[in-house]
Design a protein that fits this description.
The complex is a heterodimer of chains A (187) and B (217). With 187 residues, chain A is α/β, with parallel strands linked by helices. Chain A is 46% helix and 12% strand. With 217 residues, chain B is an alpha+beta fold. Classes of the chains: A alpha/beta (187), B alpha+beta (217).
């Protein structure tokens, strides 16, 4: 596979269709700058600042861009909030749509047949495989990302974190908790 | 296209297997494919839907057995061949054998810093047909070409939850038939509507549905 990729890159570079330095920069951005820490900072601010939370729920793209990340967030990010009554879970049954700009590239399991096939029909069984057991009467809302809208789950703030700084709170926000396959860590 | 990519509700794929300490890329070539995909996307030779449609057209055997970035590579190679940007002989030789066809300027290092997802919303030309709380039914559509209406959500009754704007229509954009923008809605279905009486009563599922997928219920 490596040789085949190198061949394609060589052809496209020789034709002037791609610039290898730009490719380096893209790989570097996804390896070092764009990742779930960005999403975690957004969630931590929403937990700490009710005005920001309202902005995030109204227009998550605008709210995310106000955080000043090095890489801009594109259109139609939608934040959905977990509550004691409703747990949100995000999937893309048709391909791999995922909010890259705030969570980084999706993990292999998110793109896998087991997750894509089962999240919409038996989400509780899927959650159990992630070690998440919700109360039986909690409503589960699955968001199938079938268009160019992207979804970020705001997990519930764990108890015992009153007065914590945004930085400390962000450390409790896991990637999976922002997809809905996990909960925020307990302090 | 009713192909293997449309997986919602299928059985038999086994458990979800999260990986601990998962790296961003499992091999350096995966990162190169991801970067090539984005850099070639910058040339706007085809739409994002055209890229998805090409991956969906891989055989079911290939789709299920190839890794994610291997599928991206195959989709990229096929679309480059289809558009005449790269020849099969060049892929075979591993080098360019002729001057490039005319193309837009390539992505530079400076472009990467400000790179963001495309915006697929377009100015509205007609009013939205539906509003929140309207009851709708999805159509029983089975096009041979790309669509974003999953099989499990066809001919089902749901409720409009939100109007998301007027967006590029993947079904036409994928086949080079124009952006033909359409209103986009979040439509919610009960688990029982989708999966029958034995479904989890606490479950509801939403899709993002373009107006041509919907009729009043």
């Amino acid at each position: 596979m490596q040789a085949r990729v190198r061949a394609l890159e060589t052809i496209l570079t020789e034709k002037g269709l791609v610039d290898p330095q730009a490719l380096d920069r893209i790989v570097d951005a996804f390896e070092r700058k764009i990742g779930p820490r960005n999403g975690a900072r957004i969630v931590a601010r929403a937990w700490s600042d009710s005005a920001f939370r309202a902005r995030l729920l109204a227009d998550a793209t605008e709210a995310a861009n106000s955080m000043g990340f090095s890489s801009p967030v594109g259109a139609h990010l939608i934040a959905v909030e977990n509550t004691p009554e409703t747990h949100n879970l995000v999937v893309c049954t048709l391909c791999s749509c995922y909010p890259w700009e705030v969570l980084g590239l999706p993990p292999v399991w998110y793109k896998s047949a087991p997750y894509r096939s089962r999240a919409v029909i038996e989400p509780r069984a899927v959650l159990a495989e992630f070690g998440v057991a919700l109360p039986p009467d909690t409503r589960i809302r699955v968001w199938d990302s079938t268009a160019e809208t992207r979804f970020l789950v705001i997990p519930m703030r764990p108890p015992g974190t009153q007065g914590w700084s945004e930085e400390r709170l962000a450390a409790l926000v896991t990637r999976d908790s922002m997809i809905g396959t996990g909960l925020a860590k307990r302090p | 296209m009713n192909s293997i990519h449309d997986m919602g509700g299928m059985h038999g794929f086994g458990p979800v297997e999260p990986e601990t300490e998962e790296p961003v890329f499992h091999a350096p070539w995966e990162g190169r494919v991801m970067a090539l995909y984005r850099a070639v996307g910058f040339l706007q030779l085809w739409s994002i839907d055209g890229a998805r449609a090409m991956i969906e057209s891989l055989s079911p055997e290939t789709y299920l057995s190839a890794s994610y970035y291997a599928k991206w590579l195959m989709g990229l190679e096929r679309n480059l061949e289809r558009t005449g940007m790269v020849g099969a002989d060049e892929l075979e030789a591993g080098r360019s054998l002729r001057p490039p066809k005319e193309h837009a300027r390539p992505m530079t290092v400076a472009d990467v810093a400000s790179l963001k997802r495309g915006d697929f919303e377009r100015p509205a030309t007609v009013p939205a047909r539906f509003k929140p709380a309207d009851r709708v039914r999805t159509l029983n559509l089975n096009p041979m070409t790309h669509t974003r209406l999953p099989r499990y959500a066809r001919d089902k009754q749901g409720v409009i939850e939100a109007v998301r704007g007027h967006h590029v229509f993947p079904d036409t954009a994928a086949i080079g038939a124009g952006e033909s923008p359409q209103w986009l809605y979040t439509v919610v279905f009960s688990g029982r509507e989708l999966w029958g009486a034995k479904a989890d009563p606490t479950l509801s599922v939403s899709i993002e549905a373009f107006e041509p997928y919907l009729t009043p219920a």
